[in-house]
Amino acid sequence: MKLELNHHITIPKLSQLILADESRLFLMQTIQNPGSITFLFVGPEGSGKKTAAFAMIRSLFCQTPHEVSPCRICQQVLNKVHPDMVWVENEEGKNKLTVEQVRGLQKKISVLPLTADFHVVVIPEAELLNLEAQNALLKTLEEPPANTITILISKQTGSLLPTVLSRCRMVRFRPYTVAELKKILMTHWNWNESEAQQAASQCNGNLLSALQFSDSRWDDFSTKVVADFDRSLSSHAALFIACIHEYEQWEPDILEISGVTPTQRKSRVFQTALQVYSRIWERRLRGEESIPASLDLLAPIFVLECLQQHIDLLETYLSPRMIIDHFFITLRNGFQTGYLEKKSLFDWVAQL
User: Contact at 8 Å (CB) between 333 and 237?
Assistant: First the structure.
């Protein structure tokens, strides 16, 4: 799910960034004498990776370092139009970053910077680089042009080649704490304390999820998902099959999924629905929400285990329909027996 930050002042400079102290210190030290370097920012959705990239570039390029408000250069950075910043995203309707895009960025950084002392390349979804693109990028990582900073951003490292990983300085991002999220919402988004506390306590450390709490469409989406899943997992198989079919066709406007492939749309809808359902079970585990009587035979910790497993699988290139089928069958059986079968998706498929 992508959520654009429309209010650019919400992205501070690196020194004001709310981030784990050790990560901020490392990045602050690096920008004092950057040279040519490649970073890999890795962590779950909504953990501040892209915000940190913007903050770092603001700090590198800014011409008014003591001002809080963005200067002209900062505005160029935040709008991704600075001439010495190369921002590489997948093209509309495609689910991969291609070798042509990598060659395009290599051409841009082969000439001297126009206004800054160095180029900065950002690939915000590095896990989408296909094999050919990664091999082409490897040449730049091994022999980068002088004064070129490259920032790869990814939710996980499994799809990146070991040779690419070995040439990156990895910065790990963890989910925000409730206190950190509350401070971000109040400081950078001007939320009042009550709203910030409520959102921060319900979103499992995910800033993007916290920001969605201000949108009434998100309430409608979440309410529908929880009701649909509770009902489908406690009833006969035909009901969850109908639920899966509906979600395969669904295009909720809150997710802004126009212009993507059908497989991308299904994966995003299913993954977001599972994340919503995971959050309600976190609250049920803490005793903040009641557990329906038809779903109380299985311990909440096992429900959350199953949810996280399938959320992670939806980050892979397996069929979204196959993953969600496995999820419903596994968890529905668990609610009926009180036992969660530890059969992997691959073992399950082999028996079909």
Answer: no
